[in-house]
Amino acid sequence: MPDYTTAGNPGTTGSDEVVDVLDDLLENARDGEYGFKACADEVNSTQLKQVFQDRASQCAAAASELAQLIRRLGGKVDDGGTVSGAMHRGWVHVKGSLGADSALSMLEECERGEDAAVARYRKALKAPIPADVRSVVERQAQGAQRNHDQIKALRDQMRAKA
């Protein structure tokens, strides 16, 4: 296992700080997984249901990868997502229960979540993290950006139809 002490890797943070960065991204990935599952449960469109389920699976895979890195660095993996993620999912369910579960409203909620995900990855990439961890974070950041772009494009298509 690489040594992530600051003295051993000038320009990088110690393993506790790296774990903190990864913990934030893990919460983000879990929020994405749970949020996309909530949207899949609420939306009526078969096509969007599949898109949301696929995104939930991708977020779950990212969470698993981040959890492995955290464990490898000696960190403890916490369960669950964030309070803001729970509020986001609650809003999705409220919209669904009030009949506002249109494809457009679900896509708008997902885009808000993906905006937050992209921002968290950008923040993580500004941290001085080791090269092997950075490569994982960069790859996942690219995936978050792709998710964002796809959701935004679908949202824009729905707006054009409205």
Automatic annotation (TrEMBL):
For this protein, the record's InterPro entries field holds: CHP02284, DUF2383, Ferritin-like, Ferritin-like_SF, UCP029477
Lineage top rank: taxon:
Bacteria
Q: Which residues form the DUF2383 domain?
A: 18-126
Q: Which Gene3D superfamilies does the UniProt record give?
A: 1.20.1260.10
| Biased composition range(s): Basic and acidic residues | 146-162
Q: Where is this region: Disordered?
A: 140-162
Name of the protein this chain belongs to: Uncharacterized protein (TIGR02284 family)
